[in-house]
Amino acid sequence: MNEGIFHRQADSGRRALTTYTRGYVVALSLLALLATAHLVVKRWSVEAAAASATVINISGRQRMLSQRVALMATRLRQERILGRVQASTQQALRSAADEFLQSHLDLSRGNADRGIPVPVADNVLAAYFSGQPSLDEQIRQYVAQARQVADDRVLNEASLPIFSEAPTQLLHLLNEVVALNEANAHAAVARIDRLQIWFWALTLLTLLLEGLFIFRPIVRRSRASLAAREVESARLAEASHELREFAYRTSHDLVSPMTSIQGTVQAVELLLERGDGRRAREGLALIDQTAQRAKHLVRDIEALSGVGAGSHEEPAQDVCAVLDTVCEELADEARQRGVQLIAELQPVGGWPVSALALRQIAHNLIHNAIVYADPDTAVESFAEVHLEQVDDVLLLTVEDNGVGVEPAQVGRLFGLFERFRPDLASGSGLGLYLVRKLVERCGGEVGYHACHPGSRFVVRLPRNGLAIE
């Protein structure tokens, strides 16, 4: 009865922890959302202020350039009358006209490189493009007249508007544009200020509501479920410790792809020395593929490390596909070691065991069969992989004709950090230990049988051995 009460309290503590977690997540998410929104508005205000300052500055300079164009045109006309035309005056007029036109194009159409936004305000667009003629047309005509004067392509210069009413009229219109830009900038700043005030008020309101409806209930419930939460914390701490230990133990399985990469690098170096660029590129492609497989293996190990801590496990949708992938990953190492890798797989479809666990089990057993091949044998070394279903049990058998295991060592075969032939393999002695732990986690069993020569490992995985969450 006490045990039942304890379990009910533990369940209550777990439910309370879930509720607390959700409450904290909601609260922090809201605060993060508001903080992000405030940051976005702040950056927007800075960017808007910078853009407005740029627009106002360039529009003011454009106003000055209009008068400089008129001044240079008048000076050049006087020099022609006196017969003392200066090339510098012509160039100054052309430069002023070009800069004047470019400033107009930037202001009326935008220029991202100069930090000038495309105008969207109706009053500014109307100032540039409404009327007959529009300001846009007048500026283009003004620049065209300036260029005609600079190039001496006008018979009667005195008749050009650039020497009479055009400068004054244009200056008046440009003054209006500057005033519009300044007014729009002030209005934008005012809107952003109001928006920031709203975000500030919304943040205060959110903090108040979180205190009333999230944090106060959490504090109240936490007093009643302290014992259950302590039990849950202890369990989580233990799970975290197991996760770190498991990740450390599985790290040695990355040695295989790294070894393959090192061997391929050496081969590529020899090919490059011989000038065989095509095969060298193939070797580089193989290195890339192996590195990708290593990266995937790291991700698999990380995902698999969470299985013991109650993480979600994906069942094997196609067992044969998982084993084919493992065989493909190890095929190159098998060829390098002179081992014939044979796979006889009965199609069994999916199986309710972790695909990641199955992949790791098969990888370790097949890799051992390859690396523990007998270097002194007179016959061809082999590693055979068999898969079949007997009733509701999945049988995975990995057999080889390698060096085998001494009878005195069989009892320690699946132990932690057990290494029997370091002259053949440089592993850390975690591979078979990991196989045993994974098989047991899947509700199955693994056994060893001596073959004389060689070894046979049989993995039995019942269909109902592991409940996939």
TrEMBL record:
EC number(s) per entry: 2.7.13.3
Segments crossing the lipid bilayer: 21-41, 197-215
UniProt keyword Phosphoprotein, yes or no: yes
PROSITE patterns: HIS_KIN (PS50109)
GO molecular function, one term: phosphorelay response regulator activity
Principal subcellular localization: membrane
UniProt subcellular location: Membrane
Pfam family, one: HisKA
CDD domains: HATPase (cd00075), HisKA (cd00082)
Membrane topology (UniProt): Multi-pass membrane protein
GO biological process, one term: osmosensory signaling via phosphorelay pathway
Catalysed reactions, semicolon-separated: ATP + protein L-histidine = ADP + protein N-phospho-L-histidine
Family matches, as InterPro entries: BphY/WalK/GraS-like (IPR050351), HATPase_C_sf (IPR036890), HATPase_dom (IPR003594), His_kinase_dom (IPR005467), HisK_dim/P_dom (IPR003661), HisK_dim/P_sf (IPR036097), NarX-like_N (IPR029095), Sig_transdc_His_kin-like_C (IPR004358)
Histidine kinase domain ranges (all copies): 249-465
Keywords, alphabetical: ATP-binding, Kinase, Membrane, Nucleotide-binding, Phosphoprotein, Transferase, Transmembrane, Transmembrane helix, Two-component regulatory system
UniProt xrefs under SUPFAM superfamilies: ATPase domain of HSP90 chaperone/DNA topoisomerase II/histidine kinase, Homodimeric domain of signal transducing histidine kinase
Assigned GO CC terms: membrane
Annotated protein name in UniProt: histidine kinase
Organism: Abyssibacter profundi
